[in-house]
Amino acid sequence: MERHAEAGAEQLGLGIKGVKSACAAIEREIASGTTPGAVLGVLHEGRKWFYAAGYANPKPAQGQPVPVSEDTLYDCASLTKVVVTLPLILQLIDEGILTLSTKVSDILPPFGTAGKEEVTVGQLLTHTSGLQADMNLHSHGWDREQMWNTVLTAPLVTKPDTEVIYSDLGYLTLGRIIERSLELPLDQAFKRWVSDPLGMRQATLTPSPEKPGRYAATEYEDTIQDHLCGIVHDEKARALGGVCGHAGLFATAGDLLQYTRMWLEQGAIPATASPEAEGGESRILSRAGAVAATRTHTGHMHGSNRGLGWVLKGDKMDASGDWMGPGCYGHTGFTGTSMWIDPELDLAVVLLTNRVYGGRSSSVAQLRAQVHNALTGAVAW
Questions:
Q1: Domain 2-379 CATH assignment equals 3.40.50.2000
Q2: How confident is the model at residue 277 (pLDDT cuts 50, 70, 90)?
Q3: pTM of the prediction?
């Protein structure tokens, strides 16, 4: 670890002590059993570096333990919200198809029930729609049509624009808005307008579970008598086939660093991406859209500081640690994933763990803070 961390510090132009400390924090959590393995990806001033430790799957039902590598695909869980759904919605706004004030019921008429007639796209993005946080869709034996009808007709639990309630239902609905607006399934839209242009070569909403060695295993599932591996962990996404706006993305740390670089460049496609966008487009998002997404839209709500999709500094879900600046933003995923960006430092940190491998009680909250603090402190060495 030590020699690799030293090489990484030199490659990134960061202080050796900070990089070593970040790696050591990961090693401690693996040793304590919090997570069987992890991949750290760091982007600083356009230079990337990765650190992989532990196991992607320590006890597969068949075969030998699978070690983690920088190419291990992780179930990104709610990173899907900001990596898949957010950029596609912002593109639709850039193209004049939607606005933040577009009423959801104008796109999805079944949504316009139970007091939701005035709920907007912007409110779904900022989790201020008043929708409930979660819903059991998977245990009733419903077909897809019944599940979607239940999502779209769910009542509000609070008045819109009065409180942040982090809602999977809101992003499920945004995924449907994308599909209706583009007349294309969400996974195909993501590939065509986000992942391919950015060179996110392995990122997918349709993983191949027949190749389990490529994936970090998550929780044990009684129905298959094994850990989920290449199968989405989120029950709602699994019941709906995995292609959803709130969860279902599988990606490597490298894929996600490519995505963070686009945000550091305020919507531009990085020169290293070998863009495949139609017509040679040089941007994923307009600069105006990227800037708007990373400024606060909930400053008037106590304890909340959210952009469009993104968690901002000081929000109750802020996982940036102590040293990242006031302009930082990021997001976490339930399976143990996170990505955080500090534009002032030209720094992005992706931390992928499968902390749910042993159940849902393990937490990597302190690990995120420790890693972010160590790397942020290493910038000004």
A1: no
A2: very low
A3: 0.96
